[in-house]
Amino acid sequence: MPAEEVWYRLREKYRLETDRIRFSSGIGLEHDSEFEALLARYGSSCKNYLHYGPARRFYLSTHSREDTSAFIAETFPEWIDQAIYDAEQLCEHHINLLGYPDLRLGRDIDWHRDPVSGYEWPRQYWADFDLVHSSKVDPKTIHELNRHQHVPRLAKTFFVTGDERFAREAVAQLESWISQNPKWTGVNWRSGLDIAFRAISWMWTIFLLLPSRSLDEQATRAIMKALFGLLDQVYRYPSIYSSPNTHLTGEAAALLMGGLLFPELPRSQDWRQFGSTVLINEMQRQVSEDGVYGELSSYYHCYTVDFYLQVLILAKLNRFAFPDWVSARLSRMVDFVTHINRPDGTIPLIGDDDGGRALKLSREHYGSFRDGLCTAAVLFGRSDFKQQAGAFQEESLWLMGLDGWAVFNSIAAEPPSQVSQSYEKDGYLIQRSGWNAEDSHAIFDCGGLGIIRGGHAHADVLSFTLFSGGQQLLIDPGTSVYNCAPEWRNFFRSTAAHNTVVVDGQSQSQPSETFAWNRKANARLRKHIVRAGIEYIDGEHDGYTVLPQAVTHRRRLIYIRPNYWIALDELTGRGEHEFQLLYHFAPGAELMVLGEERRGEIDCRAKVGETGLQMFLYASGPLQAEAVCGQTDPIQGWCSNRYGERQPSPVLRATLHEFVPAAMMAFLMPEALPARSRRFDLGDRSAIAGAIRDGNHDDIAVMSTGHSELQLIDCSMKGEFFWLRTEDGALKQLFAVNATAFSYAGEKVFESREPTHVVAHFWDDGIVIERGEDEGKVYVRDLRDRQFQRK
Questions:
Q1: In 252, 268, 466, 467, which residue has its Cα 20 to 30 A from 147's Cα atom?
Q2: 260-272: per-residue pLDDT in tens?
Q3: Domains delineated in the chain
Q4: What are the phi and psi torsion angles at 578 (to 5°)?
Q5: Percent helix / strand / coil, the chain, rounded to 5
Q6: Minimal CA–CA distance to 674: which of 592, 747, 598, 748?
Q7: Which residues contact 355 (CB under 8 A, 6 or more apart)?
Q8: Residue 422, CB half-sphere, CA atoms under 13 Å: how many?
Q9: Mean of the pLDDT values across residues 41-63?
């Protein structure tokens, strides 16, 4: 621990114990002289202060209730219908939390009672709770409830309908919370991030309810005083060292908002200074220059984007300038979302997800981030963001007002110029066949556990997901839970829960506590080649080199655009091992597993809705293949679409017992009709070759250690990987990687002393060759005077 951190923690400990004495004595806890002085300057009316000051600084849509509600009623009446339905449920104290739908909170809400388990959290000093090591109940649910993100929905419904029922309910819930949660009493004062969420929720509620009779002077004073107390707690105990990730940025966002909105309160200047400084520093520390959030979690990436979108919009409204590079990096963060966004608008669950959102005025979770894309399209004037957003989103209206709607309509929607995108430093490589709803989309993960302790990353190096035909096919199973169920927590973040290879039953990285690791695998991208119609990715990790007999896993993923993929797994090192090749399918997928296991040949056919995926697996030794679903001992065959829930989902598990080196080749073709494939016998254990039919072509893939010269049909080759496209038996295209020689029908195509990659196109009277070491240089060989000698 650095000396700076030691000194900070000592000061924090002293502050905690000093506050404990104040808590025990109860002296001066509820007095706020700054707040009283503020009210005195505004004729002792809190509502007057809010109306003539902060309300003019808040987001655009709250400025004019009449114009906003009339616009929604005319343009998006379905928003009002949904808002009324949601608000009526909330008035009955029915609520959705995380993966737990329709929870009943009872007639009188107990804000200390866990709505899932019924456990009542004790009313003790806030710092005495050890939430990470608690085994009684998951604190996530009580914190989610007490974020109060449902309360602005009640306020929003009042704002657009004028119905005081919803305003009364919102005020009543805040007043009951204040009465049940005196300063520093109970678990709801424990987590700085969750207090920050609550403060943001209260700010939205206050300004949406400002025209309401239900928010009278007495209620306004009580809520505002309590709001300032929440912001004081966040400022007093920020997560600088305890959770220096989205906890810290969320806390800073709330403090900056408070500092911008309430500048008449003297201490709000400290909030603003701290919040803005942290947000600038953390954008530099937590987000890469390419715009990828450092914990390597798609969900927490969206969280971070949301926080920054909200604060940048509010800062702009209040003429508070962030450095230009912050906006530029945020734009690149949205670029990343654009590319990981699947064709149906959903986000794959890479790494942890905690089931929540930074703001819940319309959507409850990050299954889709179209509202963030819409807001970013307006903020940055980006046509590609608009294309991915699909349509104008409700949350964008609340953040940016009618001006946002006008700007959105002025932008022409255009898909991104690139169908594939690589974030090589961060370990993500994204491939797609196009930007339409039925197109294919794959994400290959060649990253480690992230730059921020790896607390929200998974042991998923060399895993990939696949979407096609409007359906998830190969999935990342998600998170399920953080607390109180270590066996499930460890499964969902283990290698066994991802589409990669498990060696000897071990995970690449070894988990420790809930958000910690005992050992972390290191990954590296060896090579990435993009050529017309072909993309080649080559990565490896050292997670299994700690085994008594060390193993290195290398995976190559080759995309033959637009129709299919080839996955090559190579395991080298020492000794005999058990290798489990795992492919996790979407829930409800129907799997049929066929093949010749003794010959190491498996045909797996999966159907998800009207979409199919056919996989042909060829291994260097006998395979044992099985479909597993909903297994509990050991855990396998599960997925979790939202925090707190899980459901069975089928997994193909192909097991190979063999001495290294061992290898596996897989063809993956998404299509409804059965594909055809066959394996070639090369007479060489160090090589695997197979063919697949793709339209009018027969494509052949060959993987090898590269040490032997291989003979196949009319070809002689030496190198690590070859892909050949043939038509009516004639060679039409060649793609070779780390190769030194290739001949066809007795004619030498290329020969090199050093391994290189080569692309060659064959015509009746010539060959066009592109050599890797002279990138961009093309060689044309004229064969009109000399034909290949065919056998």
A1: 268
A2: 999 999 999 999 9
A3: 45-237 (no CATH), 281-417 (no CATH), 419-672 (2.70.98.70), 676-791 (no CATH)
A4: -100, 120
A5: 35, 30, 35
A6: 592
A7: 98, 99, 140, 144, 365, 642, 643, 644
A8: 12
A9: 91
